[in-house]
Amino acid sequence: MTVTLADVAARARVSPATVSRVLNGNYPVAEATRERVLQAVDELDYVLNGPASSLAAATSDLVGILVNDIADPFFGIMAGAAQSAIGSTASGRAGGEKLAVVCNTGGSPERELMYLTLLQRQRAAAVVLTGGSYESPEHSAATAAKLARLAEAGTRVVLCGRPPVPGDGTAATLAFDNRSGARQLTEHLLSLGHRRIGYITGPDGYTTTRHRLEGHRAALAAAGLDDAPTVHGPYERAAGYEAARELLRRDPDLTAIVGASDTVALGACAALRDLGLSIPGDVSVTGFDDLPFAIDTAPSLTTVRLPLQEAGHRAGLLAMGTEDVPPGTVTTIGAELMVRGSTAAPRG
Hints:
Blueprint: H1 5-12, H2 16-24, H3 31-44, E1 62-67, H4 73-88, E2 99-104, H5 109-121, E3 126-130, H6 137-152, E4 156-160, E5 172-176, H7 178-192, E6 197-200, H8 207-222, E7 230-231, H9 237-250, E8 256-259, H10 262-274, E9 284-286, E10 303-305, H11 308-320, E11 330-333, E12 336-338
């Protein structure tokens, strides 16, 4: 006889909706209620809907890699490296191969939770979440609950390039030091003599945006300067283009523009050229991430290098369990300043 969700609800003395919330992890549930539901699930041997081949095992052969935008090289590099590492750990025919699936959230917190729910239902062997996370108490609580449920079911959880989720102690975390990298960039411009510096940052509400902006402002404060003009926008070339023009409308005497990503900086460079300004003669420009095109721009882009390939590879090994990092451990990955041709001392 097939056990239903209603059977679990009756055993736990709760509503079916409460059982669904506990199993999906989308909403916080009182700990005592959660434990009662999970005990009923164990006693009745209830399983979530999923592929029949996965029901006999604790986990399936599926690994989910969550990215904001697979077309963005920042995410594509990490996802590709993780997928390669996952494939390299297999021992041949029927030797532990995993199917790595890239889930594109489009930066939507709701879609991120949805993919985590789907991967839970599929009994994924591992989940890798890349890039910055959305900052809100509700989303953090829902994500922590979801990750805890995945871990309880035997799923390895890895955060790659993002800080730990508040309230979660289940994920192995590889966090980029975005604050330090941003501070190094601004300190470099200050050392060249720049004092009128515009900043193009990312969208509000995300950890990467906040941490990079905090590093930039810390460098300004240490130099005794007020906050520079700042424009928020997506990490896209078009946003960088419009933001650079907006910054120059606010302060035509800017001598430097800091882009919170290389893609944004690329758009800023295009805007400066269209305005008849030279780089770095009239305005210095910096990026962040050191994506492959950064060294090939004209002039080559001063930026901060994040080891995206290495971080993605390590995340794949952690997902497969071939590298031993205890759950809840946070490893901070440093950022390296790369000084190139797009920055110079201001004229005059």
